[in-house]
TrEMBL record:
Keyword entries, A-Z: 4Fe-4S, Chaperone, Heme, Iron, Iron-sulfur, Metal-binding, Mitochondrion, S-adenosyl-L-methionine, Transit peptide
Protein's cellular compartments: Mitochondrion
Similarity-based family: Belongs to the anaerobic coproporphyrinogen-III oxidase family. HemW subfamily.
Record-linked PANTHER family: COPROPORPHYRINIGEN III OXIDASE (PTHR13932), RADICAL S-ADENOSYL METHIONINE DOMAIN-CONTAINING PROTEIN 1, MITOCHONDRIAL (PTHR13932:SF5)
Described purpose of this protein according to its UniProt entry: May be a heme chaperone, appears to bind heme. Homologous bacterial proteins do not have oxygen-independent coproporphyrinogen-III oxidase activity. Binds 1 [4Fe-4S] cluster. The cluster is coordinated with 3 cysteines and an exchangeable S-adenosyl-L-methionine.
Protein name from the UniProt record: Radical S-adenosyl methionine domain-containing protein
GO biological process, any: porphyrin-containing compound biosynthetic process
InterPro entries noted in UniProt: Aldolase_TIM, Coproporphyrinogen-III_oxidase, Elp3/MiaA/NifB-like_rSAM, HemN_C, HemW-like, rSAM, rSAM_sf
GO molecular-function term, one example from the UniProt record: 4 iron, 4 sulfur cluster binding
Annotated ranges, domain Radical SAM core: 37-273
Source organism per UniProt: Tachysurus vachellii
């Protein structure tokens, strides 16, 4: 999981539909810590397009294969929900927009333009805001990439996944390597220096050697940003069933560990700097939208199943909320039409929950969590106080996988590969500290 992309949302159970509360109800958590209102004025915006042409064998993201899509209704609802959530929040400036999915390159360029116009009409969209669109190779031809550029997109994230025919078939992708290369080349011509590729490793049938040569090939054609995801076997997917039935075998853990290690070295040799567990950039082409997540900055999530973290205007107190929008697109449309938004779940984050997010997200970055970053969320307790005395934390440091020093807290190069075993230790220490020293900040839901 460490090398996969599953972010904090799922880790903290915020995506679990069985925990959803009714529309408009807030799960309140006692808290004495107010967020600095100035911090919550800048945010990023995520827009979810939930439709795909075909179900990939491994994917359990919130996506649907519809018979047809009513683009007009979807556009109106995405605009409406964007407007409502912007008005409900204290956000006055949007610094990045990310159109993800599903397959947002199946949306019409006019939809993308309409959403961006709504943002500009109701808040300030920064002049140099990063506006990313995820592009699937096969679907890119439907709306030409230049139209998306005219609509306001200035960064493409291309879902290459693999350049190997057999791997693409195992993954159930509906494109071949040639189509992926064509889409990538077109994206690079349109947005030089601002194209990312998603590539997966740990695919059944892949060996360390075949992965290494595949990555070398990716490096010959890619731009300045690469996201490497370890294929995660997700329950309920076709691949999961195939593995259960013994039709397909996932590579062993030590093999995927070697794949990750060699990929990091190969990327480094090619001039890429790793800035997060799965993300590599050269020429400083880092994704500011995703950095916002890892730095625990506020964001608004629009569209079926989207997540958000922001301080609402109406509460009267400056507490950040975690929000999840209704998952199923038809239900989401009805709710947006009736209420202006389809927030299915709202949780007020208490001080401890917010610090857990800062820790879990921050340690994914190679820069880790500086003392200043921590102090922005917890001015009254520093990292040394919370973690420094712990024998378990000292053990992690002695093993050379964790560093706590004058700069702050971060994983070592080796340690980043073990983040999933480091985090529970740190979260336990954080929890214990708060329950011992600041019990009023650590109370759970009432
Ligand atoms: C992390 S991946 C790939 C990012 C890509 N590698 C890049 O650098 O731009 C993006 C996916 O995460 C999910 N995602 C990101 N932000 C989200 C949010 N706020 N709510 C729900 N899903 C989100 C979406 O499924 C989206 O397609
Ligand atoms: C949810 S997809 C949306 C983007 C687009 N539809 C695509 O497939 O390229 C975002 C990224 O998630 C990654 N992803 C999805 N399921 C995954 C899994 N089970 N394991 C690892 N990565 C996964 C893929 O690399 C994909 O590029
Ligand atoms: S990986 Fe992308 S294209 Fe494939 S089903 Fe998931 S969201 Fe759709």
């Amino acid at each position: 999981m460490t090398r996969s992309l599953r972010p904090l949302f799922q880790r903290l159970g915020l995506m679990c539909p069985c925990k959803q509360t009714g529309e408009g109800r807030v799960a309140r958590v006692h808290s004495s810590q107010k967020e600095n209102p100035r911090d919550s004025q800048h945010a990023s915006l995520y827009i979810h397009w939930p439709y795909c042409l075909k179900r990939c064998s491994y994917c359990n993201f919130n996506k649907y294969i519809p018979r047809s899509v009513d683009n007009k209704v979807m556009t109106e609802c995405l605009q409406q929900e964007t407007q409502t959530l912007l008005q409900l929040s204290r956000v006055s400036q949007i610094s990045s927009v990310f159109f993800g999915g599903g397959t947002p390159s199946l949306a019409q360029a006019s939809t993308i333009a309409a959403v961006l116009e709504t943002v500009s009409a109701h808040t300030r969209l920064c002049d140099h805001a990063e506006v990313t669109l995820e592009v699937n190779p096969a679907s890119a031809g439907r709306t030409a990439l230049p139209d998306f550029l005219s609509a306001g997109v200035n960064r493409f994230s291309v879902g290459v996944q693999s350049l190997n025919d057999a791997s693409l078939r195992v993954l159930g992708r509906d494109h071949d390597p040639v189509q992926a290369l064509q889409t990538l080349a077109e994206a690079r011509t349109l947005c030089p220096g601002r194209v990312s590729v998603d590539v997966m490793f740990g695919i059944p049938g892949q060996s360390v050697a075949s992965w290494e040569s595949e990555l070398e090939e990716v490096l010959r054609v890619c731009d300045d940003h690469v996201s490497l995801y370890q294929l995660t076997l997700e329950r309920g997917t076709h691949l999961y069933k195939q593995v259960q039935l013994g039709e397909v075998r996932m590579p062993a853990d030590d093999v995927t560990a070697s794949m990750y290690r060699s990929a990091r070295k190969i990327l480094e040799q090619a001039g890429f700097l790793q800035y997060e567990v799965s993300n590599f950039a050269r020429q400083n082409a880092v994704s500011t939208h995703n950095l916002g997540y890892w730095r625990a900055q506020p964001y608004i999530g629009v569209g079926p199943g989207a997540h958000g973290r922001f301080v609402p205007r109406a509460l009267g107190v400056a507490h950040r909320e975690a929000r999840t929008q209704t998952l199923e697109p038809d239900v989401w449309i009805k709710e947006v039409q009736q209420h202006g938004h389809a927030t299915r779940r709202r949780i007020q984050l208490n001080h401890l929950s917010l610090l857990e997010e800062v820790l879990v997200m921050g340690l994914r970055m190679t820069e880790g969590i500086s003392h200043q970053h921590w102090a922005a969320f917890s001015p009254e307790t520093d990292l040394h106080q919370v973690l420094g005395a712990s024998a378990d934390v000292q053990d992690l440091q002695q093993r050379g996988i964790l560093i706590l020093d004058d700069r702050g807290l971060r994983c070592s190069w080796e340690g980043l590969a073990f983040l999933d075993s480091i985090l529970p230790v740190l979260l336990l220490e954080l929890d214990t500290f708060f329950h011992t020293h600041r019990p009023e900040d650590g109370q759970r839901e009432q």
